[in-house]
Design a protein that fits this description.
9 strands, alpha/beta, two-stranded antiparallel sheet
């Protein structure tokens, strides 16, 4: 009987310990979710306390500030968290949206060359030693992107080159086949390098994810236009979501006129 009572006590102790562990894990996961929502794209971001930089282990991008990012839904509420939640969240996750002066993250993108061959290339290979205008759209073949954003850059790409820009490129969270078909549909005439960020790696690294799951479009990128000088972002026009107010070709040309033209 004593042995049975001992075994019973051990089993009960194990069950209680397991229950507490599951409860703690569930709360931790829920807290991370709340923190991700609470800290959605707060900019500028505070540094981690005690000098604990969450970019540790990630190679530093030469020529500009390194930055951290984490996948997050752009459909999440942007209401500020409570002070206690902020302290807890700061310890769990640190989010960062790209800013002027940041180094462009080195990720792989794909495109079709002039001979119809699909190429895979890193952003560093594409932009090192060049001045490049890179603009992003939420999706190929979508109305605003097809009738205003991309055509505007097709029209002004020659002027931008005359004023010191080496390359004009468009990127979207689509595959290279879609980007190639869209290029032919719009008629880019070889003026725009059409880059595919198929897995949203660049969007995630820049911290500009746009969650359009509720519209059946999955994870996309916010709309933006930036000037990259030797892999460093020197100018950035970042839209809220898919809005089209500050990232047009005309906006970029005005900045180039004021800052690059002699």
């Amino acid at each position: 009987h004593s042995l049975l009572r001992l075994l019973g006590s051990l089993v009960m102790s194990h069950v209680m310990s397991r229950s507490l562990h599951v409860s703690h894990t569930s709360r931790s996961r829920a807290q991370v979710g709340v923190c991700r929502a609470a800290l959605w794209r707060t900019s500028p971001q505070p540094k981690a306390r005690g000098g604990n930089n969450s970019s540790a282990g990630r190679p530093h991008q030469p020529g500009g500030r390194s930055f951290d990012s984490a996948p997050i839904s752009a459909a999440t509420s942007s209401s500020p968290p409570s002070s206690s939640s902020s302290e807890q969240c700061e310890e769990i996750v640190l989010l960062k949206t790209v800013q002027e002066g940041d180094a462009l993250p080195d990720v792989k993108l794909s495109y079709f060359d002039e001979d119809g061959n699909m190429r895979e290339v890193t952003t560093r290979e594409l932009f090192a030693g060049k001045k490049v205008v890179l603009f992003a759209v939420p999706g190929a073949f979508t109305p605003t992107c097809s009738t205003r954003h991309l055509p505007g850059f097709v029209k002004l790409a020659p002027t931008l080159r005359e004023k010191g820009v080496d390359e004009v490129a468009c990127v979207s969270v689509n595959d290279a086949f879609v980007m190639d078909a869209w290029s032919k549909s719009v008629g880019t005439q070889g003026e725009i390098l059409m880059l595919a960020d198929g897995s949203a790696k660049l969007a995630r690294e820049l911290g500009v994810e746009l969650d359009l799951t509720d519209k059946g479009l999955g994870l996309r990128s916010r709309r933006y236009a930036m000037l990259i000088d030797d892999c460093v972002i020197t100018h950035l026009n970042l839209e809220e979501g898919g809005a089209f107010t500050v990232s047009s070709a005309e906006d970029m040309l005005k900045w180039v006129d004021d800052n690059l033209s002699s």
